[in-house]
Design brief:
single chain; 4-stranded antiparallel β-sheet; 6 helices; Peptidoglycan-binding protein; PGBD-like_sf; Zn_M74/Hedgehog-like; Peptidoglycan-bd-like
Length: about 230
């Protein structure tokens, strides 16, 4: 039975659900997005997303008016698949419409774009056989880009904290939990990683730390220190 974390930015809180694969994702409308569809090829017993991403999905699905095939949505960072700054690792990105034909994909793209609910709808020239949209949030830690993850420090709550904790745990720097809440154990683990790779040991996950951390962990596979 998968555990699903959902971050609500409006209330700055993390909610937890225990669901079956055939259950609808929390905050999705009806059965338009089931847990197994959001999971895709991920084998993780733990998944995460945000209320904003689910609300954007609902608007897109309502605008399109038909079923949307979800080919790729969630991956944990050590599972890899979409580079070092993938919003799929944060649970807020969707690659959809694979196999639905160009006419359907064009209509899905327009529906997603017209909602105005997604932070990024990838140009069709970049995704010729699928449609990508995501609902990233927070200012990127690295300047001069709209991608990447925000700076995180003690007290933060978000799915990006889940990405951070997941990466540290996979590399053997234990946060003692996977809960999306940046507390003292997460800070201690982060400091240990920063010390080991020659970064400034400040306990803050900024641009340089994200670069080192993601480069080290993306796609390495499940390790014995991963926490679910």
């Amino acid at each position: 039975m998968p555990k699903v974390f959902v971050y609500d930015a409006f209330n700055n809180r993390m909610m937890t659900y225990n669901l079956n694969e055939s259950d609808s994702m929390p905050f999705s409308t009806g059965t338009t997005l089931r847990v197994r569809e959001f999971r895709g090829s991920s084998s993780s017993p733990t998944l995460w997303t945000t209320t904003a991403a689910m609300e954007a999905w609902n608007l897109t699905r309502r605008s399109y008016g038909k079923g949307i095939h979800v080919g790729y949505a969630f991956k944990r960072i050590w599972e890899g698949g979409h580079g070092t700054a993938s919003q799929h690792y944060a649970g807020v990105a969707f690659d959809v419409g694979q196999g639905q034909g160009s006419t359907a994909r064009n209509a899905i793209w327009k529906a997603a774009k017209n909602t105005g609910a997604w932070g990024y709808v990838e140009p069709q020239s970049m995704t010729p056989t699928w449609v990508h949209f995501d609902r990233r949030y927070g200012k990127p830690a690295c300047s001069g880009t709209t991608s990447g993850y925000p700076t995180l420090r003690r007290g933060a709550v978000s799915t990006y904290v889940l990405v951070l904790q997941d990466a540290l745990n996979a590399l053997g720097y234990s946060t003692r939990t996977l809960d999306g809440k940046f507390g003292p154990n997460t800070e201690s683990a982060l400091r240990g990683f920063q010390r080991a790779v020659g970064l400034s040991v400040d306990g803050i996950c900024g641009c340089n730390t994200w670069k080192k951390l993601t480069a080290a962990v993306v796609g390495i596979g499940r390790t014995r220190t991963v926490i679910d």
